[in-house]
Amino acid sequence: MPTELSTHGWAQPERQARWAEAISDTYFPLSLEFAAEQPFDGHLQRWSTPTTPLSLSRLRSSQLGYSRNKAHIGQDSDAFYLVTVPSRSEVHFEQDGHQLSCRPGGFIVERGDAPYRFHYRADNDLWVLKLPERALKANLLGHRRYTRHCFDASQGLGRIFVEQLDLCARHFDASPAAARHLLLEQASATLLLALQQDERVLGSEGSNLSTLHLTRVERYVLQNLGDPDLSPQAIANACGLSLRYLHKLFSITPYTLGEWVRQQRLEAVHQQLRDPQCHQAIGELAFRWGFTDQAQFTRAFRQRYGCTAREVRAVRTH
């Protein structure tokens, strides 16, 4: 069953404080701004599992504002992002000097590691996917650009992503406990694809030439991840860049090119190991995703996830 709470049955004088506490427990520390002299109603459901830091929630409430400041951020042990999908009324979001509005039929990305303000002026019904910052950093070069746009949830991958959120909530309890994380991870994977393929990010004012090149490199690598000959020189040639410039591009990211490619390959293997429908041997999976040295793969996997690939696969059967 999802974690669930409602203001129904709470006395009006205590609703604001109790709701503020529940919101901070579900997402991260936030300040809430309630409408003056108006009764407040709220209902919150949350789906999560210990095997993944991802979580999904559905938040329904009266008019409300949320803000996050440096003091809030200082309380965090890990950085998270929120992906918010309004389905009833328009939401307004301000972060890093950018302001945007998002109506039902769209979704936005909120960085938890920087101050922001988020509000809606009428009753609303929101899907919210919470995911660790490292998931975006590892998969989206220049990931901070994505907080500047309202993304389309009415068609294509954006619509599939939102539909998967609904499917996740409806089928979560009926799924085996060991496989529930897959519902959340599939939604997260579709989200990443939707963000990667949104052309507006490439043309935005916040994008410079380096970001354009990084995005092109990112797409090429992800399309050719299983190629064992995916070398820096091959990537540079395919993207029309010099090898020196390619390595320079990655100096503005948290990773070197080699580290980032290895991380993508490890994540691809990790996801398949947790898929109950995948029965390939671990060595075959590693080779499929570009690892030609089994010992090197084993060391890298343990270093990345703190356990062996065999142990990850064993978890799904319990």
Task: Walk across the major sheet and give the strand order.
Answer: 1-3-4-11-6-9-12
Overall pLDDT level:
89
Number of domains: 2
Form type: globular
Please give the radius of gyration in angstroms. 21 Å
Percent helix, as a range, is 40-55%
CA-CA gap between termini = 19 Å
The SSE order reads EHEEEEHEEEEEEHEHHHHHHHHHH
Secondary structure category: alpha+beta
The CATH architecture of the largest domain: Sandwich
CATH-derived topology of the largest domain: Jelly Rolls
- Low-confidence blocks of residues: 202-207
Number of helices: 13
Q: Roughly what fraction of the amino acids lie in strands?
A: 15-25%
* Record field, number of beta strands: 12
Determine the CATH superfamily of the largest domain.
Jelly Rolls
- Under the CATH scheme, which class of the largest domain? Mainly Beta
Largest sheet: 7 strands, antiparallel
Protein name: Helix-turn-helix domain-containing protein
Keywords: Activator, DNA-binding, Transcription, Transcription regulation
Subcellular location: Cytoplasm
Pfam families: AraC_binding_2, HTH_18
Features of this protein?
318 residues, alpha+beta, Arc Repressor Mutant, subunit A, 2 domains, 12 strands, 43% helix, transcription, AraC-bd_2
